Please model this.
Amino acid sequence: MRLLRGLFTQVFLWVLLPLILVLLGVAFGSTALHQQAMRSMVAERNAGIARGAAAVLTENLYRRQQILQALLNPLAEDTFPDQTIRALSLFIADFDLGLALFDLEGRDRLAELGPLRADPQALLDQLARRPGEPVFLFGKFAGTSGVWIGLAKGRWGAVGAVSLNALGWEMLRQTVKTGPRAVVYLIDSTGTVIASTAPSAQGANLKAYEGATAALQGESGVAFHRSPGTPEEHVTAYAPIPIVHWALLIEEPWIDVVAPLLRYTLLVPLLVLAVTVVSLIALYVSMWRIVRPLQALGERAIRLAWGDFEAIRTPVGGVEEIQDLQRALQDMAEQIRRYQSGMQHYIAAMTQAQEEERLRLARELHDETIQNLVVLAQRIQMLELTLPPLEEMRPAREHLQALSAMVRQTIQGIRRVIQDLRPLYLEELGLVPALEALVQSTSSEDLEILMEIDGEEQRLPPEVELAVYRIAQAALSNIVRHARARHARLHLEFGSSGVTLTIEDDGQGFEPPELPGELALRGHFGLMGMYERATRLGGHFSIRSAPGQGTRVVVFLPGEPPRA
Model:
């Protein structure tokens, strides 16, 4: 949630992102509308080209059928006039692969001009079976692709062979190709390619091809599809050649059909994306000069609030205004330091008085109260010994024994209080044994406390050792009373510049305040006391916790306390 409130995020969400979305909407919307218009235009254009090319082939085939019809019309049932033979020479130019007249009964060749380059028996068989109907067959004539055209009248048959180029195929393949990768297919009634501008497609079956079936059924139009084996979208225009039950297909990739203007339109989203990336980079660079220094300054301000006055002195960079703000914070930090120095003297005096009062109470409890209780316990024992060993004295003896036990428990309790008021181990043996005794006395069946020592153990000034001990004492007391923890760890690290105390637990945790001044307002007086002890001696205090995630207290105290 804090990230969403950042300056960079706010500028991006409320300024840059809406602008990007509008630009992308306009770009993709205009591109979609342009492509839709281009599809309609391309469909109309390519369909017209395919119909025109099919019409040319149909017309050329029909004209040659009419020539054969004209040759057969003068023939009677049993006569074959000489003028018919002479008429053959008039039409030889239309049948570049040969023209002949046959007697279908005997299969005799009556006349021939431009010798036929292939055997016409298959065509003659169909003419015999289909008298009066024109027959068209695709064939190969000495390596040249062509079309057989036949027509029968009675016993007479006229047979012509014409190459595809003579029908206009060569001209069509040059004019029909609409792009560099466009392919033209001429397919027969079975869907087999009989001619194509792509040599590898010769003989392939395109019956299942997009538009092929519709064209063989007499329809014309355009289909947009993706061909097998390629992710590119293709556009296929198709038209029938009904006279021979063939079809003409013109296929090319859609991107090749797109006009240059549309290609530029397709680049608009990329241009918007590039502008977006450049804008984000520019925004990021500008924010780097503002947001990152502000974040660093905010972190240092929080550390300053917790007593780390040196943190605010580290430069954070950024624009001049941020540097002015840091200088203002440095001046404020110096004023706070002076004020805190005065407060620390006052708190030090109070703490000293408190420790002296604790020492006085410990002495009085040890020298007077415990001594009196010891004497009381001894007299109870003497009184018990003076009682006669009679059965009627048994209740009195039991009361004296109970009273003696209560006195011993009271003595132990007062000794624990004396230990809290005046840690004798700390004065006599040093910091580490005192902490070990504290950990041992605080541990229980419900709370396991692990103690760790790092660095070379050394004696510290008495006020520093006492502060470390009191902070550890307060922290462990908080764990016992509030944390509901099963495990805790006390880690003491000796360094060249001071000592670091870390105490953490796996308890229920809480939500710590961001500023130390809020500790007392929220009732965390124990934590406030730890903070005051640490800062009074020139140290640092930090606390990390969250509900359900335990608590971690870290305190650093310098080896030598600051001088007044």
Notes: The CA atoms of residues 138 and 551 lie 93 Å apart. The mean pLDDT is 79.
